[in-house]
Each structure stands twice: as C-alpha cells, then as structure tokens.
Design a protein that fits this description.
Helix 1 (about 5-20) runs antiparallel to helix 6 (about 75-90), helix 12 packs across helix 13 (about 245-265) and helix 14 (about 270-280) crosses helix 16. This protein has 19 helices and nine strands. The longest helix is centred in the N-terminal third of the chain and has 20 residues, at about 110-130. By secondary structure, the chain is α+β, with helices and mostly antiparallel strands.
C-alpha cells in the first residue's frame, strides 16, 4: 500500500534533520544525489514519495542507513510538534471551522506551536464529549470497517468455505435457488421453516436443539431475501460462532454471516469470471452483475467491493444513503473523502449535496442508474447511483471509482460533472452571504427531533433481541 501522508511527513523531517546535521543546503545535497534542490524540498515537506534508489543515495550522502530515514519516529522534538500540528490542521474538525491553517516557519518558536496544539487538543476533547452513549459501538464499527479496508474487504477463508458448501449441495452455475439453500441447510442438520409469528426483534431464529431455522413467510422490506437470511443463519454454525462477548464481537459476527451469504449468492469463481469479462468489454455495471445472480442492487454493489480490488486491481467505494444524505452503509479503499466524526465514524454522517449519492434523488428518471463525475479536494471520482424506496423512506446505492478507472465502466461517457469542496462548509452547508444576511434573525424553524439521539444502545448478547419473546416463540413451536 502507498505510504500515508503522516509517513511521508515523518520521512521528510528525518531527511531534513540528517541534511541539516551535515551542514548541507538543499542544492548541495541535490547535487550529491543527482536531483534538483526543489525536488528534495517537495520530499522534505512530505509532498512527494522518493524512489528507493534516491533514498539510498540520500542515506549514503548523509552518512546514515536507509532504515534510519524510514524510522516511524520523528527525528527530534521540533519535528514531532510540526507533524502533530500538520495532522491536527488536516482533520475534518478543524477544516469545518473555515479558518486558515498556521504555516510553520523556522522563526516560529516551539512554545507557539505547543500553544496552538493545546487549542487543537481541547477542540478534539470537546468534540469527543459531545458523543452520546453509543460511542463504544461507533468506535467498534469504525475499527472493523478500517480493518476490512486494510484487507480490501476480502475474506479468503469464508470465500473458500462458501464454494465448498455450494459444491456439496450440487450448485454449478446461475442464481442460487431456494431448493439449493434448503439442501445446504439439510447437510448441516437443519430444516427451514417459514412462520408468520417470528419475534418482532429477530429476523430469524435458530433452534439448535431440534435443528430448525425459522424464517418469515415472505421477503421483508429492504432487500433481505429469504435465501440470504437462511444462509446467514447457517453461517453462524459453519463459522463456529459462540455467543458474542461484546458489541465488537457481535458486529464482527454479523459482518461474517453477511459475507458468507454474499459468497453463496454470488460465488467467487463465477462472479470473478463475469466481472473479468465485463472489464475486458469495458462494460462493468452493477445492474448487470445484479441481474446475472438474481440479487438486490445493494447486494451486488457490496459484493463488488469484495472482488474488484482483489481480482481486478480496481479500488472503489460503496455508499448507501437515505433521502437526507445520511450514510447508513459504507466502504471505500479509493481515498474518497468521506465525512466523519472525531472517532473516525462515518455512519450517520451527511454526504455533500454535490455527490451523486444525493443529487440522484433529483433526477426525473429514477428507474435507471445515474452517472456522474465529481471533482473533490483529493481528486476526481466517477460514480453510478441507483435510487429506491422502502417503508422507511428513500435511499440511494452508489458504487464509484477514481477517474482513471472509470474507463472500465458503462456510463463513463456521462457529461454530468460536479465540484465538491466539502468538508469546507462553504461548499453546500453554509448559506450564501446575501441569503444569510437577508434571513438571519428573521426565521425560527421547528426542528424535527431524531428520537434515536435519546435511545440507549441495545443491551444483551444479541443487541436489541428480546430473549423473553424468543424463548416463548421456541416453546410454542417445540410443543406444536
């Protein structure tokens, strides 16, 4: 993986420290290693990654080892202060204030930098204090998301397990049938039963004693088909899950069962073959992948995050957002500048109005995918967005890639283009000055109270599930 901005900044400081220690100017060191002093300046300021051969030359010219330059530790206290300030001033919390960053020069004393850092630390502390009771859950969810990002959202062992189970059940190709899902359950010693009196707090219930998996009689809203729910219930047994020990464990188990279900509905070998051919044809599209395997648009888009980077070398992002632009599900490994809070949590954050995940709601034709290029502070992204609605309201599903990879996707010829400067609030959150001046102090909106703000984190080993209701249900059916 490419180095982070923090790693490049630390490397630059260590190179500068060694150069100054040897009494060399940028031009003098540049002459020794065969590059212009201006190029070295970009490297020392963390703006450019040097090649290994150049690093070796710099190390030789300054009398140190390459490992000394690559050390993750700042070379001195001043460098540590500058790096911390750089990180603080690049945070979304600071950038939302809309005030200019402090430019560090040689003449600024250490005490001044420490004073500014003190203000940043207090800003961070106050932001953390504003987080409500579910902070632990949000942190756990963020840690899990980042861990999956590091692995390109790919879980090889579960992929292999799903392929093995499908082969044992006789599945060869095409959409997975309900009959094949039933065979998979039977091979695990379970019978699938469809009942109309499932506990309201549970999507399915597994009776381990009698070998039964209870499911609703029809698909429930939101795209969670019966096949997927049955596969998720089976996955707990196949993956050897025990009762969750904490909320982080619960989240990880939920991710794994969802992943297994996706692997079974869209098997790796067949999916990769389909996507590879579509890439060759420069005709990748979520809707084609969806229709080929008989799944929902959301399931197909999310499955592409498991496979495109691992097998086709394409980095991408996935977003599910509601009609107000709030993120409910997200994945990215293409550096899309997502909004996040002080903990790094993305879920619940409001997307920029300029992004296609929100602008697609204003399209007249809502039955087809909406394509758009969006210029952001970190680069241009191409996105494909499909909108839909449930009993809970509107939602959008977006899959997108950096500009250079748009060439593989259908819809790349779109002329729709937007410019987003978020998290700068002047982009789409702060009203124009003339409108603000006209109405400030003359309006009093009645705010809609979001009751989830006051809801405690669901308790229990299976958060939100009413054990009394579940056990009464099992008693009722065990006696029937």
């Amino acid at each position: 993986m490419p180095p982070t901005s923090l790693e490049l900044s630390t490397l630059g400081h260590r190179i500068r420290h060694q150069r100054v220690s040897q009494g060399l100017t940028l031009d003098e060191l540049g002459e020794l290693v065969g590059v212009a002093g201006s190029q070295l300046s970009l490297i020392e300021n963390g703006k450019r990654e040097p090649k290994l051969s150049l690093l070796q030359s710099i190390a030789s010219a300054t009398g140190v080892e390459v490992t000394d330059l690559l050390s993750p530790e700042p070379p001195n206290r001043r460098a540590a202060l500058e790096i911390e300030l750089e990180r603080a001033q690049s945070s979304s919390i600071f950038r939302q204030l809309g005030i200019p960053a402090v430019r560090v020069t040689k003449g600024i004393p250490d005490e001044t930098i420490e004073s500014v850092l003190g203000l940043h630390r207090e800003l961070q502390r106050r932001e953390r204090e504003a987080i409500a009771t579910p902070e632990e859950a949000r942190r756990a969810n963020t840690e899990l998301r980042l861990r999956m990002r590091d692995g390109d959202n790919y879980l090889g062992e579960i992929e292999q397990l799903a392929e093995k189970q499908l082969k044992a059940a006789g599945h060869v190709s095409g959409a997975l049938t309900h009959r094949t899902v039933s065979i998979m359950a039977e091979q695990l010693g379970f019978e699938l039963l469809y009942v109309s009196d499932l506990p309201h707090s549970a999507r399915s219930v597994t009776d381990l004693e009698h070998g039964r998996i209870y499911l609703p009689p029809a698909s429930i809203p939101g795209g969670h088909g019966l096949r997927s729910m049955a596969l998720q219930a089976m996955a707990h047994r196949l993956l050897g899950h025990q009762r969750p020990t904490d909320y982080a464990d619960f989240l990880e188990q939920r991710l794994e069962i969802n992943y297994f279900a996706a692997c079974a509905l869209m098997p790796e070998a067949a999916s990769v073959a389909f996507l590879t051919q579509a890439k060759r044809d420069r005709n990748l599209a979520v809707e084609d992948f969806r229709d080929a395997f008989g799944v929902t648009h959301e399931a197909a888009g999310m499955r592409m995050t498991n496979l495109l980077t691992k097998h086709l070398g394409i980095r991408l992002h996935f977003l599910r957002a509601d009609g107000a632009g709030a993120i409910s599900r997200v994945y990215e490994n293409d550096d899309l500048p997502l909004p996040h809070d002080v903990t790094g949590s993305v879920e619940g954050q409001i997307l920029c109005r300029k992004w296609s995940a929100r602008s697609a709601f204003s399209e007249q034709n809502r039955t087809t995918e909406h394509h758009q290029y969006t210029d952001t502070p970190v680069g241009t992204f191409w996105c494909s967005t499909q909108t839909g609605s449930t009993a809970d309201g509107e939602f959008s599903i977006t899959v997108g890639v950096p500009f250079d990879d748009a060439k593989w996707f259908r819809g790349r010829e779109t002329q729709k283009r937007a410019v987003s400067t978020c998290p700068d609030e002047s982009c789409c959150r702060r009203p124009p000055a003339e409108v603000r001046d006209r109405w400030q102090g003359k309006a009093w909106p009645s705010a809609r109270v979001h009751m989830q703000m006051f809801s405690p984190l669901p308790r229990g080993a299976f958060p939100g599930v009413d054990d009394n209701e579940v056990y009464a249900f099992l008693d009722r059916h065990a006696q029937g």
